Automatic annotation (TrEMBL):
Organism: Weissella bombi
Residues in Gfo/Idh/MocA-like oxidoreductase N-terminal domain copies: 4-116
Entries under InterPro entries matching the protein: Gfo/Idh/MocA-like_OxRdtase_N, NAD(P)-bd_dom_sf
MF terms (GO), sorted A to Z: nucleotide binding
Protein name: Predicted dehydrogenase
Length: 330
């Protein structure tokens, strides 16, 4: 089956997903939603699509089967809720929702629309290289700790320094370093090690009350995971998973590149595969399979949904610890 795809959001990540969706052969872009007709038309030119909507109801009734949502975090909830009510499958960019209350309401709605599938687009955990990391972690005798690093200077940080308040650094849009970049290593940690027993977040506050960078500590029964992330600087540190005498080194926890396993004799074993040209292709293929073959993939789908909801709760707990409140919070 080829899914008729509609998109909300016309930024670079949307373009990358549409290209991946087309490359997978499982989707065809047929409709674009944008607040401004000209913006939607400009986006559609690259894909020969001229069906642009500025009314969300008309967009959802345009004949699409699945919607990809890459709008600001704060509006995901209402857009996803409306899509599910129209019995549309949903792929929503991370962070999916502002808080657990929103997620609980979406879960209740999904229970009423049993044939609808909703996915959070955490592309890195669907990469073949991430599967290699999971396999190697399972083989390690003991996990003693881990450090995940993802700091990347945002093109919008210059705007912040100039006195503006870009969406990706604004509590108004349920954004900041934690929900924009921190979610990558946090997703990886929870996928690999499960939900932590306790969490702490040491945030570096911005003048608007959001976070520009921070360090999160995940405490597990026998080890801790330190997660460092930020949008106002560039880090070139590797991420590491520590065993006893062995260590797994990951060059980029978000892009999942350059995986090296050092055994007990300190011998290096290169494990990573060459990355795919478009890192969103694997998730596009996996999501299409789960939408098409619902009975066969029900267990794996439920695991993904549970993982997404767990990440949402942990993000909320971290914000609570740091005293960061979003307007969307009750």
């Amino acid at each position: 089956m080829t899914y008729k795809l509609g998109i909300i959001g016309t930024n670079w990540i949307t373009k990358q997903f549409v290209e991946a969706a087309h490359e997978s052969g499982k989707y065809e872009l047929t409709a674009i939603y944008s607040r401004h007709t000209t913006t939607g038309q400009e986006f559609g030119q690259d894909f020969n699509v001229d069906a642009v909507y500025t009314d969300l109801e008309e967009f959802y009734n345009s004949g699409i089967n699945v919607v990809y949502i890459a709008s600001p975090n704060s509006v995901h909830f209402e857009q996803v809720k409306a899509a599910i009510k129209h019995d549309l499958h949903v792929i929503v960019e991370k962070s999916a929702f502002s808080n657990p209350d929103e997620y609980d309401e979406i879960m209740a709605l999904l229970a009423e629309h049993k044939d609808v599938r909703m996915f959070e687009a955490a592309r890195h955990i669907q990469q073949p290289n991430f599967k290699i990391i999971e396999d190697q972690v399972a083989k390690m005798e003991k996990i003693s700790g881990a450090t995940f690093v993802y700091e990347k200077y945002s093109s919008r940080f210059d705007d912040y320094l100039a006195g503006k308040e870009p969406n990706v650094l604004s509590r108004k849009f349920s954004a900041g370093a934690l929900t924009d970049l921190g979610i990558y290593p946090i997703y990886a940690a929870i996928k690999l090690f499960g939900k932590p027993q306790s969490t702490h977040y040491f945030a570096t506050p911005l003048r608007n009350g959001s976070d520009g960078r921070g360090i999160a500590i995940f405490r597990y029964q026998d080890f801790d995971v330190t997660i460092e992330f930020g949008k106002g600087s560039n880090s070139h540190l590797d991420s590491e998973i520590l065993g006893l005498r062995d260590t797994l080194v990951i060059g980029d926890i978000a892009e999942v590149l350059d995986i090296t396993y050092y055994d007990a004799d300190k011998v290096a074993h290169e494990l990573s595969q060459a990355p795919v040209d478009n890192p969103m292709v694997p998730e596009a293929e996996i999501f299409a399979d789960m939408m098409t073959n619902q009975a066969e993939t029900a267990e794996e789908y439920q695991k993904l949904l549970t993982l997404s909801q767990t990440v949402n709760q942990v993000l909320f707990d971290l914000r609570q610890d740091a005293g960061i409140v979003f307007p969307a919070d009750k």
